[in-house]
Design goal:
The chain has about 80 residues and is mainly α. The protein has 5 helices and no strands. Helix 2 packs antiparallel against helix 3. The longest helix is centred in the first third of the chain and has 13 residues. It is globular and about 35 Å long.
Amino acid sequence: SLASAAIQLSCDFRPQEIGNTAWAFARVQLMNVPLMESISAAARAKIGELNAQELSNLSWSLARLEFRDAQLRDALHTGAAT
């Protein structure tokens, strides 16, 4: 499946790919917990590299899918403040 492929590639995602992948799944309201966990881990690892648009896409996607990750939330808050 597309989600399975994205999970395997997510550790190598560039910042734009993190935001775009999360946005694409959220746009069609397709919640895949393992994928979102993988995207969250990738985002936390590269939080300082995400620009405003990528942070916005990721934040919107998490809210749309009602995905909760306290570590990512804190990292997004810190990233948005810098």
